[in-house]
Amino acid sequence: MFYDTGCYGGVVLGELPEAVQQRLAGLPGEWLEYDAPTGMIVVRHIQPSAGPSLPTITGELVRMLAELPEAAQAAIPGGELFVHTEQSQLVRLKVEAGGALRIEWAHPDYEKARPQPWAGRGERLEIVEPRVQRLNGTVSFATPDAARAARELETLADSYEGLYPEGDLVVTPDASKPGVIVEVRDLNLDVLLMVERLRQLAAPGSLTGHIEVSSFATVYPEQHLRFVFRDGAPWVQRPVLWEDAGRRPAPAGSV
After folding, report:
1. pLDDT tens, 39-48?
2. Where in the chain are the domains?
């Protein structure tokens, strides 16, 4: 899935007088509209393909909020709109309870993100398309045959037919144990294939380190992630994007 501009999310306005609802429903707009049955500002089903998305969406949102009388503004439950801009940025328009509007640019941060156990290939995973994945990181594991492990990993990297046949995979002996250290630098490889092969080669409970998955192409920031290995078990870690209390990641969405 390649990056495209767009918007998703919604803002709950709550109960409004009939006259206010009619004014909101009659406002012209390219991106946003008022949905009377739900009492929400929602994204139109057909979104424009040209024009600057962020200033247009922000202007439409502010215009709709301005139609509310003061008492209704104070009673707004709130909500969030997420905008993918032409500059490959993710921006959140957050309407807080009471009507305050905050505009925030996503700044991915792994340091405070909480990893989640990964169940394996059967688990649905929102991730960068394999043929454009860019892998970086270092892992180590114990193995009785370091030469075989290096050979199999190098063959996997060399034989993968991605769109960006570049990057490095370096396998060196681990002096602290009978095993290897694997470093990947801007490697174009399907991370699920690599994780599967690492788990096959590693002695039980010995796989440690991490592999970060980004992209050579421009894709949704929400799709970036990191595989973390703890005592042989794989965990998935999404970067935290916002400075909220709790520092939670944005929900994945499509446009």
Report:
1. 999 998 776 6
2. 6-105, 116-237
